[in-house]
User: Fold this.
Amino acid sequence: QAPHCEHAFCNACITQWFSQQQTCPVDRSVVTVAHLRPVPRIMRNMLSKLQITCDNAVFGCTAVVRLDNLMSHLNDCEHNPKRPVTCEQGCGLEMPKD
Assistant:
C-alpha cells in the first residue's frame, strides 16, 4: 500500500510496475518500494474471502474456491499438470502429470 494516497496493489503487480516507474499506478504520485507498507488486516481478511476460479480452469477444473484456500486446492487439483501421478505400469514411480 502506498503511504500517502493509500492505493493498494498485489506484490507481483507493483513490483513489475516499479521496474519501469517510481510512481503510484493510479494517481502517479511519487512512491518507491521503500515507501510501501502492508495493507491493513481488514483488507487482507476481505481479500482472503474472495471466491476465485482455480488456476487450472484452462485444463478443465471448474472449482471455485476462497483465495485463502487456493494453494491447498492447487496441490490436490486433479487438473494440475504439475501434480505427481503414479506410473500406471505398476513400478510405483511418481512423475509430473505433464
Observations:
- Helices lie at 11-18, 41-48, 70-76.
- The mean pLDDT is 91.
